[in-house]
Amino acid sequence: MLLSLRRRVDQYRLRDPEFRFLFERPPADEVVAIDCETTGLDTRRDDIVSVAAVPIHGSRILASRRFEAMVRPSARMKAEAIKTHRLLESDLSGARSIEDVLPELLRFVGPRPLIGYYLEFDIAMINRPMRRLLGIELPNARIEVSGLYYERKYRGAAPATEVDLRFDAMIADLGLPALDQHDAGSDALTAAMMYVCLTDLKQRGVRIPRPPGKPLAQFGGA
Asked: Exposed, middle or buried: residue 73 (CB in 10 Å: 0-12, 13-18, 19+)?
């Protein structure tokens, strides 16, 4: 009820009617995996430096149709961010602004649900320019792959069980190829593979085994 009310309010607030398609019914069995790299981890002050989106139709990952763009930030690049994604400010000097990139990203994603790893951060980074340009936040439904993984592996586990939701641990556990991490395109593609794999496990009623009596690695960031 609250979500429905929020959508109606956002449709009224939308500054550009061209983007009303964001509120349409999404195509059946289609989702989009998304990932951003940024100048830092402050969602109020840092900026997006690259963004990628990979469409999924049913169990098919349409990697050849993915969206990728570099973005010229206004915020200064932080040292820790450079160590993570290895992008320098000089690498982005010829990139487009988020004001140019965002409309293309929105047209690519459309009203389809969004998939991601710690998706809340990526959504928050996109929502800031969204509010500035269109007066609303992303209305798309969201699916967190670490939540799907938790449900398949840790649901019903004893309270003392250590939970490991690290990106590389999930990749290894699901038997997925280890792509170059902290690259928006690779991370979006990996999230897409996680989603397809975990959705298949759920449909078949298969749980991810937990080694008996063996403590799991402690949770940490990707």
From this structure: buried
